[in-house]
Design brief:
The chain has 861 residues and is mainly alpha-helical. It is built from 41 helices and ten strands.
Length: 861
């Protein structure tokens, strides 16, 4: 039976006490200050208030609850409404008090607050010795009224009036809302409302979520509970709604999985964006540019730019919380996704234009969004991009490690006329993009041009040139790099930060050259000198390389120190693009070294410091997989070892990441892991392919390469099982998967032809020609080289179909050409071309498979 139904008031058996419940009750019992529950919406404030109301009423206290979002016009009506609500009842004390209240009102007291005070004193005398606890919810609704100052001044004064009226010792208020206490009294000539005891209503802890789910009878695995906590951060409303949806899945007798959590989150919050608290958060962000700017500052590490008022608005709206260092952070992955950079910049672009917004995003370090905005403008505009926008686009691509695209954009930039300084700066970055895309010869040539110029970029280009010469790794390039580097290294800079960075980068490259020539002592000496002058953001890479060259267990302190620096600097980026940048490549190298020595704790610390794990790269495995793509293969071992351990220890890793992890380890992981990783990948991928789950193109193509290897090894039966799974995984071929479907059909047809399996080659040929016919437009866009393959493969398929018609053995086509020759109950001997298995069966039971070519008639009985 379902327990988690939509409900404004949480049933007692599902309510979970939090620290705020205990703090609130303690403050109420003390009766010394009014507790003030200040927290974002959808955090359970109202249920907290109703819970304390029930508890105190059970002890005999009088606890009226008022929702102040119901507006009342004037202060006199407001005070009278409060009193009338309190005495509205059939008890003896209410009846007696009502008569006294009527008498007070007949006195014609001019001041509403004085009438209110006398009425409260009368109530307190009637209920003696019980307490009167007045709860005001949604107090922020009153702040905009004409009488808010009088109300909160009145509340404040009653605590000080205890010296005159002892009855007030049994009176207290509970206030709750999203307005700061300093905002309650607007008139600065009146004493501020500074007597409240703040109660912070925090999100559920993971243990409180476990208790809530137990109360609801939801027996989820620990991985599912952990994922619910991760995506909601314990937000009560989100936790309830997500758990309710998961409860429905569980009631269907299906075990709830971590992927179910992701699907539920997508369904509830990230399609229509119309469910609380996401709905009002997006409305706030859309209407307030300062909120949007602050979100960008948080994401890109510039929290010091956010003023206190905006910080408070972010917190009280439920967008942010605070980390252990007191810095604002986006509250959870759901809110982060609902307030995506793309959506925020789309709003800003409507107001200010896309290129201006792109420039803001670039300054914030939001390079992916910079690329999206400028590329969109570029696609729609007929004019050439302004030079600055073109530069921002190219640099952003370089920062994002999209080196081939960066090369094209910088090529366009260097071809445009500009003054010398800008032109050489663009050429320097163009050379860097070339080097990182693998075209070191062209990069060296471009660097040399910049070095020969008398511009500010010449010095940093020397560092780039020496790094490229070291990477080229020929005797000539190493010698040239050494001569150039030694000439510069002999004259250390005097205090200039940029020159110091360049000097350290050159020493780093010289160390690489020395190490490649076997001069480890000289290499370490250069690294130690570099470390002594380098700014902190360069030091982790130097320390990692020192450990790599030394490789002594005692040197692990070098890696520990590197991680400490990363945590301190938050992976501060520098824009020299030297080989010593604090970049993803250098971070990945350090993580790989740590993985090789089993220091997973330090890897996790790097990830927490350097990457926002709740955004585009949601976990340590995903981040590691992205970094591996940037590293040379000789550095894959340590990081793939870390991934291997994570995959086998963490059930919460999503299916696609698990598949990619196993595939990556099978290709470039430690040798002793590769065969096992391949077996695990094959088993998982084949199971997914035959289910209704989506199997990514990369995994389908990798399966195809395994099938090809099996065909080459004369294991066609197993190969065709894999190819059948690939076809099942593709399902109905959609335009975006046309190329994968075409390649799979082509390889299947080829393999079947090689072993003489005509029925299978015919089916593959039919499949291929149908894909070409249905998706010709998509296939035509794939390029001329692929177009030639399509043409030749189509011709081969047509030839296969012709051969099948002319050469199929009579026994195979017998049921098709003369189905009456065999009776339904005739017994036939058939053989499977795939497995070679042969058996006897009644014709009626195997007729369809014979017609389709899946079975071949060998003989009749």
């Amino acid at each position: 039976m379902k327990k988690l139904r939509p409900s404004a008031i949480i049933p007692d058996h599902l309510y979970v006490d939090r620290e705020a419940d205990r703090q609130l009750e303690s403050t109420v019992l003390a009766m010394a200050r009014p507790p003030y529950v200040l927290e974002a919406r959808q955090m359970g404030k109202t249920n907290l208030l109703l819970h304390i109301k029930k508890k105190r009423e059970a002890e005999g206290d009088v606890v009226p609850y008022f929702d102040l979002s119901v507006r009342i016009d004037d202060v006199s009506s407001f005070f009278r409404h409060l009193i009338d609500s309190i005495v509205n009842g059939k008890g003896a004390w209410q009846n007696a008090t009502r008569n006294s209240i009527i008498a007070i009102r007949k006195m014609g007291i001019a001041e509403p607050h004085r009438e209110y005070e006398l009425s409260l004193l009368e109530i307190l005398r009637e209920i003696f010795p019980r307490k009167l606890i007045i709860i005001f919810d949604e107090i922020d609704s009153v702040v905009s009224t004409s009488y808010s100052d009088r109300l909160f001044s009145q509340i404040r004064s009653m605590y000080f009036s205890r010296v005159n009226y002892s009855e007030y010792e049994r009176l207290t208020y509970i206030l709750a809302g999203v307005a700061e206490p300093s905002e309650l009294i607007k008139d600065r000539s009146i004493s501020p409302f500074n007597i409240g005891e703040k109660i912070y209503l925090k999100d559920f802890s993971q243990s409180e979520i476990v208790k809530f789910m137990a109360n609801a009878g939801c027996a989820f695995t620990s991985s599912v509970i952990e994922e619910v906590f991760r995506v909601t951060s314990g937000n009560p409303r989100m936790t309830w709604d997500v758990t309710s949806e998961l409860e429905d899945i569980g009631l269907g007798q299906v075990e709830v999985s971590v992927e179910d959590v992701s699907n539920v989150v997508e369904k509830l919050y990230l399609r229509q964006f119309d469910r609380a608290p996401v709905d009002h958060i997006r409305v706030l962000a859309e209407s307030d540019s300062s909120v949007r700017a602050a979100i960008g500052s948080i994401r890109w590490g510039n929290v010091e730019d956010i003023d206190p008022k905006t910080r408070s608005a972010l917190y009280l709206s439920g967008i942010t919380t605070y980390d252990l260092a007191g810095r604002p952070v986006i509250k959870n992955p759901i809110i982060d996704a609902a307030l995506s950079d793309e959506w925020l910049s789309t709003i800003a672009a409507r107001e200010r234009g896309p290129l201006r917004v792109a420039a803001d995003q670039f300054r914030l370090g939001a390079y992916a969004e910079t690329v999206r905005l400028i590329s969109s403008f570029k696609d729609e505009a007929a004019d050439t991009l302004p030079y600055d926008s073109q530069y921002q686009l190219a640099l952003s691509l370089l920062y994002l490690n999209r080196h081939d695209e960066a090369v094209l954009e910088f090529q366009n930039l260097v071809d445009r006329p500009s003054e010398a300084e800008r032109s050489m700066a663009a050429l320097y970055h163009y050379a860097t993009a070339l080097a990182r895309s693998g075209d070191r010869i062209s990069a060296i040539s471009a660097y040399r041009m910049v070095v020969r110029s008398e511009t500010k970029s010449a010095n940093v280009a020397k560092a780039g040139l020496i790094a490229a010469l070291a990477a080229e790794d020929t005797a000539e390039s190493r010698e040239e790099g050494r001569k150039l580097g030694n000439g510069i290294a002999s004259e250390p800079p005097l205090g200039d930060d940029d020159e110091t960075r360049i000097f350290a980068a050159i020493l780093y490259s010289l160390a690489t050259i020395e190490a490649r020539e076997g001069n480890t002592v000289s290499a370490l000496r250069n690294l130690k000198t570099a470390l002594s002058v380098a700014p902190k953001e360069q030091q982790p890479a130097i320390l990692g390389r020192m450990f790599r060259f030394g490789q002594e267990p005692k040197d692990i302190f070098l890696l520990e120190k590197a991680v400490d620096i990363i945590a301190e600097t938050k992976d501060k980026r520098i824009n020299t693009f030297s080989d010593l940048d604090s970049s993803d490549v250098r971070i990945g190298e350090l993580m790989s070294l740590l993985g090789g020595v089993g220091r997973d704790d330090l890897i996790e610390r790097i990830i927490k410091s350097s990457f926002n794990i709740d955004r585009s790269r949601p976990n340590s495995v995903r981040i590691s997989l992205d970094l591996i793509k940037l590293l040379p293969e000789d550095l894959h071992s340590g990081l793939t070892t870390f991934i291997w351990r994570k995959v086998h220890a963490d059930e919460a890793i999503i299916l696609n990441d698990r598949l990619e992890s196993l595939r990556t380890i099978s290709q470039s992981g430690p040798v002793h892991f590769r065969s096992r990783a391949l077996r695990e990948f094959m088993a998982l991928a084949l199971r997914v392919a035959h289910s209704d789950q989506f199997l990514p193109d990369e995994d389908l193509l990798f399966l195809l390469t395994q099938a090809q290897a099996l065909v080459a090894g004369n294991k066609s039966g197993k190969a065709f099982e894999i190819m059948d799974a690939i076809r099942a995984g593709l399902g109905t071929v959609t335009p975006d998967r046309a190329i994968v479907g075409f390649v799979a059909a082509y390889q299947d047809m080829n393999a079947a032809r090689q072993i003489g399996d005509r029925p299978r080659s015919r089916r593959a040929a039919q499949y291929l020609t149908s894909i070409v016919a249905e998706h010709s437009a998509m296939l035509d866009e794939s390029g001329s080289q692929f177009g030639n393959l399509i043409k030749s493969a189509t011709e081969m398929a047509q030839q296969v179909l012709r051969e099948t018609i002319l050469q199929t053995p009579r026994a195979t086509v017998l049921p098709q050409t003369n189905p009456r020759k065999l009776g339904r109950n005739s017994r036939v001997i058939v053989r499977s071309p795939h497995s070679g298995e042969q058996f006897t069966a009644k014709f009626k039971l195997v007729r369809d498979k014979i017609v389709s070519g899946e079975l071949v008639i060998v003989d009749e009985k």
